[in-house]
Amino acid sequence: MTSSTKVLDGGWGWAIVAASFMAQLLAYGSPQSVGVLYPEWLHTYQESKGMTAWVGSLVAGVGLIASPICSACVDNFGARPVTIFSGVMVAGGLMLSAFAPNVQFLIFSYGIVVGLGCGLVYAATLTITCQYFDKRRGLALGIVTTGTSVGAFIYATAQNELIVLYGLDGCLLIIGAIALNLMACSGFMRPLNMPGYYLKQKAALERNTEEQLFVKPPFDDLKIAAGSATTTPEKPLTVKELLITIDVKDLSIQTEKKEGHLTGLAIVKAIKKKQKAYSKYMRSLYEILQDQEMVAFCIAIFLFSLGAFPPVLFVEDVAQSEGLIEEVSVIPLVSIGAIATCTGKLALGILVDIKWINGIYLYAFTMLAAGLVLLLIPITKSYVGLQILTAILGFFSGNWSLTSYITTKIVGLDRLTQAHGILMFFGGFGIMLGPPVVGWFFDWTQSYDLAFYFSGSCVLVGAFILFLLSLPCWNRRPSENDKPEVQYTSTCDKVASVA
To answer: 323 by DSSP, 3-state: which?
Structure first.
């Protein structure tokens, strides 16, 4: 641990921040500006708006819903291999989309493949950044996560120009080729700690590389393995490495004492230990969902994602359908919303650090403002007005930067991993449902008015629920989690799945 703490908050860590920023820009640039591609897909495949909207909803929602799996991959294999693999997935999915014969294939290639690749990039970049920063972790994560907004701003204009010059297929091929630079970004992600997969391999090699797992090892080898886990003075073991080594040693001792069919009892005992750990994890999730504020926050996240995400996908088509503009402008509405979201993330992050500002009420206020903006979009009859509303909505959509802070305030740092995973599931589910629902409303009424009234109402209802259930008049049991300040630790295991 002493060697790790020396490199925190500076040095190579800033190279990690730059590489992670570029990785998020390259991965999320096209998915976050998918609104530019949406009208082209409608014209090319002649499918309904509801069906075509699944492409944009899946590419944003799949990565959030699969965030626990993505975080587990990073924890076991490390940020560098995961980023390399995600580069193959994002680039491959974009290039496959150029040859999509129909929307159904596009849902798989762009929605699922690219979406999972983006989820892996997000988990890897946040995890490696957390490993290299302690006191400046908030600043580092803020810089890294703005890569998605900057990428959306750049890619919205770039994709628009590429479509004009090379067509939709050529645009996707070029964007996919650029995404291969994710592999170059992974080269900077030098790990501080050995990932879990390599620790298991190391422990197995130390025990005996030539024998099977349940073959009785020589007693001398057992003594060496035991000594390597407890008495090696040169290199102190980390907690994860020590646990893995102890597990392997304990299993070896059990298989030495038991002969024949009795060896199966050791296997059963090991399985029961794993089942006990999983049941404890599920019990912890159940206890988290017993918190009234946490339940209200989950509902608010779901309703906000359901209502506020569709404009990212539909805003360009809204302008063209209403006759406000004939084609996508030089600076698309998606770019305006993206740069406003980047500004909102930074501004709201600064505001929530002020002691007299309640993070939950601040989030509820952003939902209230976003809901009102969504209700104003149908009655706006000018392109300039639509640009202004898009910028305001983008600014308040930057409230995603508050989720980790509020979650820590509600459940504490010890349960941050599980609680944030639950929140991301609700958020991803809302993002997946929102665009298809809005598309179905248009297919039904041939107008976006009712769809945006529905979206705005969902966001306003979520703000009301969050504000009402978080009032201090409710008799909540006192908890030591309600602290005025959050003390972050330098261990990355507790924040690895925040992605």
So the answer is: coil
Token duo for residue 24? 């998020």
Question: For the chain, what is the domain count?
Answer: 2
User: Residue 292 — very low, low, confident or very high, per pLDDT cuts 50/70/90?
Assistant: confident
Burial 76-100 (b: 16+ CB within 10 A, else e): ebbbbbbbbbbbebbbbbbbbbbeb
Displacement of CA 323 from its chain's centroid (Å):
36
Judgement on whether residues 27 and 142 belong to the same structural domain of the protein: yes
Work out the average pLDDT over 439-461.
87
How many beta carbons lie within 10 A of that of residue 225, not counting itself?
A: 20
What CA–CA distance (Å, rounded) separates 78 from 101? 36
Residues contacting residue 102 through CB under 8 Å, at least 6 positions apart: 45, 47
Backbone φ/ψ region at 483: left (φ over 0), alpha (ψ -120 to 50), beta = beta
pLDDT at 145 over 60: yes
What domain range is 53 assigned to? 9-196
Average pLDDT of the residues of the chain: 77
Query: What gap in Å lies between CA 295 and CA 315, rounded to an integer?
Result: 31
- The answer as to whether 450 is a domain residue is yes
> Which of 196, 230, 254 is the endpoint of a domain?
196
Name the residue with tokens 């900077």.
188
Full DSSP string of 185-231: HHTT---SS--HHHHHHHHHHHH-SSS-TTSPPPHHHHHHHHHHHHS
Distance CA(170)–CA(178), nearest Å, equals: 12
Q: Does 146 lie in the same domain as 19?
A: yes
b vs e for 143-175, b when ≥16 Cβ sit within 10 Å of the residue's Cβ?
bbbbbbbbbbbbbbbbbbebbeeeebeebbbbb
| Alpha helices in 356-415, H assignment, sequence order | 359-376, 383-396, 403-411
Q: In 3D, which of 268, 235, 266, 269 has the Cα closest to residue 253? A: 266
| CATH number of the domain enclosing 169 | 1.20.1250.20
Same structural domain, 319 and 455: yes
d(CA 226, CA 64) in angstroms, rounded, equals 42
pLDDT digits (tens, 9 = 90+) for 61-101: 888 888 778 777 887 788 889 999 999 999 999 999 999 99
As to burial, measured by CB atoms within 10 angstroms (0-12 exposed, 13-18 middle, 19+ buried), residue 397 is buried
